[in-house]
Design goal:
Elements lengths: L7 E5 L4 H11 L4 E6 L5 H12 L4 E5 L5 H15 L4 E4 L14 H29 L2 E6 L3 H4 L5 H21 L4 E8 L5 H4 L3 H10 L8 H11 L11 E4 L6
Parallel strand pairs: 1-2, 1-4, 2-3, 4-5, 5-6, 6-7
Helix pairs in contact: 1-9, 3-4, 4-6
Length: 249
């Protein structure tokens, strides 16, 4: 069982995919894990919680719209009131609504920016004061290779992920003196629900661009996230670590 000395880890988009893999990686150190999701139901989060419970982990799940400043404020105040601290924040929540720019509605643009980028602002701001007070913390946000290289039909998604890259560099400079590191991981073509819906033609097109010749696994992204939150990466901040099989070099 966990105790008060265990790290408290908050993972948005934590019910499945990369978020689930990150949770399982932190489970190896017996962290206390808080999953945040916005799935239509609790099926995926319950699957993750059950797996963590079988390992004897203290874990919980909350269905919260992280694009809402007010909802995030309420959630993080509750977490802090019960746990007394937040040691690690992993901003992983994200969606896609792809279409060419000439067909993209304002609503589709705004929705992706709110969920993918504004949520990072909301959650990061919610933990900054507590981490400054405790003089330490780790923040890792999930960006994307397309935030660096772009991708046709993903102007909204690419912009949101590029925004994360600029955001983490600025916040890293603001809080470094307080022992807080702020980094990003930029996955490439990863085998998740988000990529499963793509056609075989699109997948094959991506595969031809990847020097390692295969899709990545959520666990491979989770390893990079965990490393950035470990003592081994204590001198690394403001960086974007690409996990893309060489898609971006």
């Amino acid at each position: 069982m966990n105790n008060s000395s265990s790290r408290v880890v908050v993972i948005t988009g934590g019910s499945k995919g990369i978020g689930r893999a990150v949770a399982f990686r932190f489970a190896e150190e017996e962290a206390r894990i808080v999953l945040v999701h916005y799935d239509p139901d609790e099926a995926e989060s319950n699957t993750t919680l059950n797996a963590l419970s079988k390992r004897g982990l203290e874990a919980e799940s909350h269905r919260v719209d992280v694009s809402s400043f007010e909802a995030v404020d309420v959630l993080f105040k509750d977490i802090l009131s019960r746990f007394g601290k937040i040691d690690v924040l992993v901003n992983n929540a994200g969606i896609t609504k792809d279409t060419l720019l000439m067909r993209m509605s304002e609503e589709v643009w705004d929705t992706v920016i709110r969920v993918n980028l504004k949520s990072v602002f909301n959650c990061t701001q919610a933990v900054i004061r507590p981490m400054i007070k405790q003089r330490g913390g780790r923040i890792v946000s999930i960006s994307s290779v397309v935030g660096q290289i772009g991708n046709a039909g993903q102007a909204n998604y690419s912009a949101s992920k590029a925004g994360i890259m600029g955001f983490i560099k600025t916040i890293a400079r603001e809080v470094a003196a307080r022992g807080i590191t702020v980094n990003a991981v930029a996955p490439g073509f990863i085998d998740t629900d988000m990529t499963a819906v793509l056609s075989e033609k699109v997948k094959e097109s991506f595969m031809r661009q990847i020097p390692l010749g295969r899709m990545g696994k959520p666990e491979e992204v989770a390893e990079a996230v965990y490393w950035l939150c470990s003592g081994a990466a204590s001198y690394i901040t403001g960086q974007v670590i690409h996990v893309s099989g060489g898609l971006y070099m």
